[in-house]
Amino acid sequence: MARDTVTLRDVADAAGVSIATASRALTGKNRVSKATTAHVSRVAERLGYRVNVFGRALREGTDGAVGVIVPVISNPFYGQLVHSLEEQLREHSLELIIADSHGDVARERERLRMLVQRRVEGIVIVPSDASASLDAVAEAADDVPLVQLDRRVEEAPTDFVGVDNERGIALLVNHLGERGATEIVLVASDDTTSAGRERRAAFDREIARRGLPVLEPILDRFTLEFGLSAAGTIARSRPLPDAIVAGDDLIATGLITGLKRHGVVVPRDVMVTGFDGTMLADICDPALTTVVQPFDQIAAEAVRALLRRTKQRDAPAIYSRLAPALRESMSTARPLAPPDTPAPAGDDAQAS
User: Fewer CB near the last or first residue (10 Å), C or N of the chain?
Assistant: First the structure.
């Protein structure tokens, strides 16, 4: 009998007791002898039945635990996302167990297995790799309810909640275009993550749609160090572009710092934008124009998806994209591009 199909009724029938007795034995309730408790527990273990503590937590207000795995907890984006998740879980009397995969697929697999072995009631994961994370994510999803957050493995048939990357990039490119930028370079993550893939594809579409020159992107990882390195590459390759779209606030912070070291002033010499809306946007100098993710809404949607999955394990997967918002600041504070006006014509124009 497959583990996920074993019900409390199956355990009760195999143990020769009522469903009520089986439930009391497996949940530690009173009025059940030690011998009966031991007998029912052995039968449940043999059948592969696992008590749904999560469901009991919802019914009785007791504590459950949800595991959250992120690639780099030191990234302010994930710190803010975890904070929002914790607040949402507390509203359901649920605790959060945080694990850091360090962006490494092998460590990610270890963290997933650890959480499954600890019998957490659900897992929320930001996958490290859009392809290589597939086996570990799918394996864990077979054991416990699992929601992919922010990034996803497309082939994994799980619930997903994230931001609308295409809309976010469109907001940025439109904003820069309004400020007269025609040469815009993308400095972002490579194709390792779904977020990197989606933001690059969205950028390419926006540039093509507007008929702007196609500049070679600079791609690596979502890190401050990469932003610093990319700044040197851009500063040495004169002439400068009009603007830089960074893949996230961390890269943008590195870019602004690195450009300043090379004597390039933002936004006078080049405009820079970020993506995420973290605290970094405020502490940058100049403050960063960025796309702000709706952290609380994303967290609430992820928890709702997880709760739904605990009740309906076979329900169709949820695929949810939430709209971001543009926050303008000093890193793009150039005057707006003047509207197109007809050129003066002939004597009448001179006379006027």
Answer: C
Closest CA to 42 of 55, 26, 24, 18: 26
Q: Which of 271, 279, 295, 302 is nearest to 187 (CA)?
A: 271
Instruction: Give domain 165-294+327-332's CATH architecture.
Output: 3-Layer(aba) Sandwich (3.40)
Question: Residues 227, 183, 272, 206: what is their CA dihedral angle, to the nearest 10 degrees?
Answer: -90
First to last CA, the chain: 91
Q: Please, where in the chain does CATH 1.10.260.40 lie?
A: 3-51
Spatial separation of the C-alpha atoms in residues 37 and 173, rounded to whole Å: 64
Alpha-carbon distance of 47 to 41, in angstroms, equals 10
**Tokens coding 25:** 């034995």
Q: How far apart are CA 277 and CA 255, in angstroms?
A: 16
CATH top-level class for 3-51?
A: mainly alpha
> Edge-to-edge strand order for the sheet containing 122-125?
94-100, 64-70, 122-125, 146-149, 159-163, 319-322
Handedness of CA 69, 72, 77, 83 (dihedral sign): positive
Residue 76: is the preceding peptide bond cis (ω within 30°)? no
Distances (CA, A) of 208 to 53, 165, 201, 224, 295: 52, 17, 11, 29, 30
Amino acid type, 240: L
CB burial class (10 A; 0-12, 13-18, 19+) of residue 163? buried
User: Residue 95 forms beta bridges with which residues?
Assistant: 65
What are 177-202's pLDDT values in tens digits?
Answer: 999 999 999 999 999 999 999 999 99
Q: Of 142, 200, 135, which Cα lies nearest the Cα of 173?
A: 200
